[in-house]
Amino acid sequence: MTGTLPRRGNTPARAPAATAARWTERRIARLAEDAAGGTPAASAPAATVRVAGNVARVDLDLVVDHGAHLPAVAEAVRRRIADRVEAGTGLTVESVTVTVVDLRLPGEHRGTAGDRTARPAAGG
Length: 124
Known about the structure:
- The protein is of the alpha+beta class.
- It contains 3 helices and 3 strands.
- A 3-stranded mixed sheet has the order 1-2-3, covered by helices on one side.
- Strand 1 and strand 2 form a beta hairpin.
- The chain is elongated, with a radius of gyration of 18 Å.
């Protein structure tokens, strides 16, 4: 048969480890924060990553828009982080723990966690 893709497992076993070796835990955390920050209703992500061998575990603190469905936002964030980290580093993401540390009320700007400064009112 022509035009088929190679079977999984035909790549050298050390290729993912070589790719993963270039990534520090802090760089992986920034990658996870970028992925989480692109999720609707989520902002101010702060990640901690632990790598053991070719496996990464991500802990993420997050601010979510008031009124958003928290389980849906958390699941979307988990998927985005796992996909981005696995694709970018070659590591297997074992777990992504999402902790909602704050809710952003209507009228508050998308700042950092703990920054609850409201936007100025229109016209004044």
